[in-house]
Specification:
The complex is a heterodimer of chains A (about 325) and B (about 200). Chain A is of the alpha/beta class. Chain A is built from 7 helices and 12 strands. In chain A, the strands form 3 sheets. Chain A has a 7-stranded mixed sheet with strand order 1-9-8-5-4-2-3. A 3-stranded antiparallel sheet of chain A has the order 7-6-10. Chain B has a single domain, classed as 3-Layer(aba) Sandwich (Rossmann fold). Chain B is globular. The relative contact order of chain B is 0.19. Classes of the chains: A alpha/beta (about 325), B alpha/beta (about 200).
């Protein structure tokens, strides 16, 4: 007896997206309903009022998987209006899959203009970088955050970390950094380097490189952070003191790019990605911030990137 | 696929007003302007604030003189939020410039949840009798670029109310956050992180 083969599922038509009913009417403006926006907006205000403090919120299901920027996306959608100009970057790049898909989605549900120019954007959603070009006071930088709890490195219990924040008991984090120095003569935390905000709350700055941390300190823009999976919002208002944890005799250091420059635009003083040629094994470097690199390449009057640390000479 | 670009008038006003409130709280002491709904003068700015932050998920309380009932009715009608005792309210509206001790009773959050502290909204007069008092106040802290501090841009807030906020927010991060609104739509934010000095 010949086994019956399962019938093949019919292939979707090439233009299957066109067969969907129009988005208009099916979704609210900016996808989230007004109740969801109001809740996120209330929590954002509390986060701004207590810089660096993690504020819980009811993270919604989004049409992308958790861990792919749902937190940042929810803040963007709760904030955005028709007059905004949106920029989305992923590790500094405007054209990565994550950034392009988020941009496409937000455009579809809002119709706002998008840009790659940092200076032209009013809202910037970012994964793991702060743009090289200095931000203006009226700009909002929204970070996608995978793990909002800086103490998770030293304490697995959420109840315990909340107690530690309540009592400003950060001794175990200090001890962790000290032991690192004893073992390796270096603090091995690269991205997600813990910072103290407004001299009170220990904060995870999301996995941005150490290079970007000085840009958070007394920056002119409002920095908003959101972890969709972990359901936490926190913020750093403009002109707020943000200090990386460091010891008197062991100073905080940013990544060193001594003697290196971008092979594409020739910039020095920017955060560089290492590129290894598979065939020759030759190492070159290029700007991590692709929009900054493009602008520099076009010879626009982009000023030298803001000094970020001492180790870049 | 067509896109969902339309935003109704109320949604648009709430979005715009919210961005201004965010601006106000992240730059304490500076004045921004809200666009209020028609027909609720002199509380248009307070109702505009309520419209973009309140709904059935939160409780509010209105304290003040005879006009408090008018304000309470306007907010309840515009938002569907439930009225609550002062000690349990998420939002406390004062229908005048002073809280008459009411601010002291508002909730300040707990050590592990300081964000549960109430938001206070003071409704100021259009033409305050005393305008020079504000020069005796200096604000410093997050959101303020000058390390020497700034003078609040809005006048008509009694000095005693600033003193009251200093006392209430002494146990930072526990405390309350405040907005001061004028009938014309002007609003100033004062988060609990702002350090207030009264001379």
């Amino acid at each position: 007896m010949t086994p019956r083969m399962p019938s093949r599922a019919s292939a979707p038509p090439a233009d299957w997206r066109d067969s969907l009913p129009p988005a208009e009417g099916r979704y609210s403006y900016a996808f989230l309903d007004e109740g969801a926006k109001r809740e996120i907006r209330r929590r954002m205000l509390k986060a701004v009022a207590i810089p660096g403090c993690q504020v819980p919120f009811g993270s919604r299901e989004m049409p992308i998987a958790r861990g792919w920027g749902t937190g940042g996306l929810q803040l963007t959608l709760a904030l955005i209006g028709p007059e905004d100009v949106l920029k989305v970057i992923d590790q500094g790049a405007d054209d990565s899959v994550n950034a392009v898909n988020i941009k496409k989605f937000v455009t579809r549900v809002t119709g706002v203009a998008v840009t790659t120019d940092t200076a032209a954007a009013t809202l910037i959603q970012t994964r793991h970088r702060i743009p090289e070009e200095p931000l203006r006071p009226n700009q909002l930088l929204i970070f996608q955050v995978p793990i909002p709890e800086p103490l998770r490195l030293v304490e697995p219990s959420e109840r315990e970390t909340r107690r530690m924040h309540a009592e400003a008991d950060y001794s175990r984090m200090w001890l962790y950094l000290y032991e690192d120095i004893v073992k390796f003569n270096e603090i091995t935390v690269g991205a997600r380097y813990p910072v103290l905000v407004n001299r009170r709350h220990l904060m995870d700055p999301s996995p941005i490189p150490r290079w970007d941390l000085p840009k958070l300190d007394r920056g002119e823009a409002l920095f908003l952070f959101c972890a969709g999976r972990e359901k936490r919002i926190y913020a750093v208002p403009p002109y707020t003191e943000v200090q990386p944890l460091a010891f008197e005799d062991f100073a905080f250091r940013v990544e060193a790019f001594a003697g290196r420059r971008c092979a594409r635009c020739g910039s020095v003083g920017t955060y560089l990605d290492e590129v290894i040629d598979d065939a020759t094994g030759r190492r070159t470097y290029s700007c991590s911030d692709t929009a900054f690199c493009e602008k520099a390449l076009r010879g626009n009057s982009v000023k030298e990137a803001r000094p970020s640390g001492e180790d870049r000479a | 696929m067509r896109e969902a670009h339309s935003m109704n008038h109320d949604g648009r006003r709430s979005q715009k007003n919210y961005r201004n409130l965010l601006q106000a709280l992240s730059r304490p002491g500076r004045v921004v302007r809200l666009d209020g709904p028609d027909g609720v003068l002199p509380f248009a700015a307070a109702v505009a604030l309520a419209e973009c932050l309140l709904d059935s998920e939160v409780g509010f309380c209105v304290i003040g003189n005879g006009s408090a009932q008018t304000l309470q009715t306007a907010i309840a009608g515009a938002t569907g939020a439930r009225t609550e005792r002062l000690e349990a309210a998420d939002f406390v509206f004062f229908s005048e410039a002073g809280s008459r001790g009411g601010a002291r009773l508002a909730k300040r959050g707990g050590p592990e949840s300081p964000e549960d502290g109430a938001t206070l909204v003071y409704c100021l007069e259009s033409q305050p009798a005393v305008v020079r008092d504000r020069f005796r106040v200096r604000l410093t802290g997050p959101g303020i670029p000058e390390s020497s501090g700034i003078v609040p841009e809005i006048s008509g807030i009694p000095l005693e109310e600033f003193q009251e906020l200093v006392t209430i927010n002494a146990d930072y991060p526990l405390g309350v956050d405040a907005f001061f609104v004028r009938p014309s739509g002007e609003v100033m934010g004062l988060p609990r992180s702002t350090r207030i000095q009264v001379r």
